[in-house]
Amino acid sequence: MLAKPLLGLLTALRGFDALFRGLTSHAGDSVREVPKLVRKRQLPERIPIAIKLALTFTILIGIGMITLGFLVGSNQTALLEEQIDKFGNTLVSQMVETAREPLLANDHLDLEVITNSMHHDGNIEGAAVFNDERVQVVKTGAVPSSPPTELFSERRAIYEWGTPQQAMISYISPIVFRDVVVGYALLTFDHSVMNKAKEDTVTVVVSSILLMLLAAIAASLYLGKRLTRPIDQMMLASRAFSEGKFDYRITESRNDELGVLMQSLNRMGEGLLRKEQVEKIFSRYVSPQVARQAIADLERVEELELGGRHVEASVLFADIVGFTSLSETLSPQEISSLLNLYFSHIARAVHFCGGHIDKYMGDCAMIVFGVPEECENHSFKAMACAWMILELVSEMNKRRRRQQLVPVEFRVGVNSGTMLAGNMGSTERMEYTVVGDSVNLASRLSHAGNPGEAILTEQMLRGKRVETRIATARHGRIQLRGKKEPVSIYQIIDILDPFREAMREEIVRIIESTEIEAA
Question: 370 by DSSP, 3-state: which?
């Protein structure tokens, strides 16, 4: 009964195994996301398969035992009745032979001797002889007072009488001489003996059935647990995989279909674990937003094409001031540690403000807001992030100066506008980024200010009603390469929005986490 469901499950697991093998073998080209934290789903109330199997086995065995017991009991009862009837008919036949001549001779004394001798038999409760007119001639012991007349015929008859406490059964046989009925012989037996024998037979059968049912229940529970133990292990494995515990493995080894299923689940776990590891590495090379976008496109990986769409977004460039001279005074290891420290903290600030780091370009970080995840408030978030980055860098430099370490200064340029967002590069290797005149302008603005300044255009300041949420100072007009007309630019002085306090608190947490790691 379980063969078809097991084969179906085996086929499905083999399909999953092939799928995950394909995913892991092409992890460098395409990755499907598995969430790091999977919500634990509450399983519905269920009846274990072991109980179901035990119940099924018990019902089947019970039905079989009850049917067998009924047949055995009925057969034994019928056999017992047949034997008693045969015994009664045999004795009454003997009485007929001995009573024929005395009845024809009307010898009452011999008839009394015959009935008394029959009654003295321990199995016979009474005896009687009737003439051809059904009139009782002699009797001894228990004899029915008025038996129905239809019992007196040319054939033998059986008559049950008495009380429930003392049941009797009488066997009546005609006495025939030369094919003429000359009288009747009657023997009475204690019917309660036969009833007791029937009850004993039923008791034995029922007791046997109950014992067999108890044994069947115990055996069914044991077999059910033995049969469902591998299924329970596979259920635990699937639950562990759904909770993100891909290192869970089934240790039991079996040489049957369930063993193949277990091996398939283990291979699935290995594939999921490998895929998760690849995804973790992949998420370190690109932002989570871009990773989610790439994973969302995994279903149509063959349809991915170069190009994109025009979007309204904001872009921010954070550039280190004097990086060339700084790299000449420090070793490569020190430069690497310095960049990692500052850009790690900047990444936390960017994430807090709702943006993502598009790429690192040496000593510069390109940060995007409003794409690939749309955000109507992207302009303000970009400005707030620019202010937060400079405040965070200023706090870090204060602590580095107290520790007599080299500080690092940043210049920030931020701009909003229409830009092209999509897959850029070649069909063999591409990246999701933004390009356009608005992006180029933001990059040039990052070089237009002084160290510790965040520069934006007047057009960005006046757009989308952000002017009242930030404090700015006019920086002047500059001529940018590629622009015919000078561009009016402003410097971000402070944030006037309540979001400022949340950013200050986050800056404190970032600095404190650095001190804890250093300790």
Answer: coil
* 224-235 pLDDT tens trace: 777 777 777 888
Contacts of 79 (CB under 8 A, 6+ apart): none
Asked if 431 contacts 372 with a C-beta cutoff of 8 angstroms, the reply is: no
Given a contact cutoff of 8 angstroms between Cβ atoms, the answer to whether 267 and 337 are in contact is no
Instruction: Return the DSSP state at 38.
Output: P
The C-alpha atoms of residue 461 and residue 415 are separated, in whole angstroms, by 9
Q: How far apart are CA 30 and CA 429, in angstroms?
A: 11
Q: Which of 371-375, 377-381, 395-399 has the lowest mean pLDDT?
A: 371-375
Q: Is 224 exposed, middle or buried (0-12, 13-18, 19+ CB in 10 A)?
A: buried
| 454, two tokens | 């965040």
Cα gap 88→193, rounded to integer Å: 13
Q: Reduced to 3 states, what is the DSSP secondary structure of residue 208?
A: helix
Is residue 382 over pLDDT 60? yes
Burial 476-512 (b: 16+ CB within 10 A, else e): eeeebeeeeeebebbbbeebebebbeebeebbeebbe
* Residues 123 and 191: beta-carbon distance below 8 Å: no
Inter-residue contact 250 to 262 (CB < 8 Å): yes
Angle at 314 between CA 312 and CA 318, to 5 degrees: 160
What are the phi and psi torsion angles at 304 (to 5°)? Answer: -65, 135
Question: So what's the pLDDT on residue 309?
Answer: 84
Q: Average pLDDT for residues 308-324, to the nearest whole number?
A: 90
Rounded to the nearest 5 degrees, what angle is found at the Cα of 422, between the Cα atoms of 421 and 425?
Answer: 120
Q: 54-68, 157-171, 325-339, 367-381 — which is least confidently predicted?
A: 54-68
Label residue 207 by pLDDT band (50, 70, 90).
confident
Contacts for 49 with CB less than 8 Å, ≥ 6 apart: 224, 228, 231
What is the Cα–Cα distance from 409 to 456, expressed in whole angstroms? 18
Question: 356 or 252: whose pLDDT is higher?
Answer: 356
* pLDDT at residue number 489: 92
Taking a C-beta distance cutoff of 8 angstroms, is the pair 261, 16 a contact? no
Rounded to two decimals, the pTM is 0.52
Which tokens belong to 364? 């510069």
